[in-house]
Amino acid sequence: MSDIKKELFNSIGKYEQSHNIEDYFEYLTQLQAEQAPWLDKNLIEVSVFQSFAKYYNDHNIDYIICKYLEQSYEQTTHRTAA
């Protein structure tokens, strides 16, 4: 798991009462995948992260999501170029 993803989990964890935020996140991504099976796995993760940011109106989570997307884009570009 990337450091940015851990940072997102930590930021979300301060709001959630779940003992294991990673498992809760996995559960929510599975639900989202059932609702929108045409979405890519990364987009599903981002949409779940974004729902937390919007629900809690936390701009820090929004910022971390942008860093997460940037990192994901860089990794995709690097794999494509190689």
Your description of this structure?
The protein is an all-alpha fold. 79% of the residues lie in helices and 0% in strands. It has four helices and no strands. The protein has helices at 3-13, 21-35, 41-56, 59-81. It is globular, with a radius of gyration of 13 Å.
Question: Which key terms come to mind for this protein?
Answer:
single chain; 4 helices; 82 residues; 79% helix; mainly alpha; globular
Could you tell me the strand content as a percent range? under 5%
How many beta strands in the DSSP annotation?
A: 0
Secondary-structure element order, N to C? HHHH
Put simply, the count of helices is 4
Backbone shape: globular
Mean of all residue-level pLDDT scores: 89
Largest sheet: none
- Point out poorly predicted stretches: none
> Ends: how far apart?
22 Å
Radius of gyration: 13 Å
Proportion of residues in helical segments: over 70%
Structural class: mainly alpha
Short description, anyone?
With 82 residues, this protein is mainly α. The chain contains 4 helices and no strands. Helix 2 (21-35) crosses helix 3 and helix 3 (41-56) runs antiparallel to helix 4 (59-81).
Topology:
Blueprint: H1 3-13, H2 21-35, H3 41-56, H4 59-81
